[in-house]
Design a protein that fits this description.
This protein is mainly alpha-helical and about 100 residues long. It is about 45% helix and about 10% strand. It starts with a strand and ends in an 18-residue tail after the last helix.
């Protein structure tokens, strides 16, 4: 913990590093895993070019080149696709629809 003293004897403490646990597959990368997975998700989920994803992140104040996003897609794209596929409904799953009452006017 780092401490900062403000005027009037007020002391503020804050953590030095991120407090959220990191995914080990993103270890050693400059950007957090949430950002990497978000950029890869944008590229594969929507019909966007790498440069469009770069511009979308740039509009949010994140400076990433399209080449970096391409490399992330090559490395983490398969893992993201597997995660999405696991959550998708399977053949033979049961779906229950709520009854909707309709009234005629």
């Amino acid at each position: 913990m780092s401490e900062v003293r403000l005027g009037g004897g007020i002391e503020v403490r804050y953590p030095r590093r991120m407090t959220t646990p990191q995914n080990p597959i993103y270890a050693g990368y400059r950007y957090p895993g949430e950002l990497i997975s978000y950029a890869v998700w944008l590229y594969f989920r929507f019909p966007l070019s790498l440069r469009m994803v770069e511009e979308m992140l740039g509009a949010r104040g994140i400076s990433v080149t399209y080449e970096t996003i391409r490399q992330w897609g090559l490395k983490f794209g398969r893992e993201l696709a597997n995660r999405i596929r696991r959550r998708a409904p399977r053949r033979g799953d049961k779906w229950h629809l709520d009854g909707v009452s309709r009234t005629r006017f």
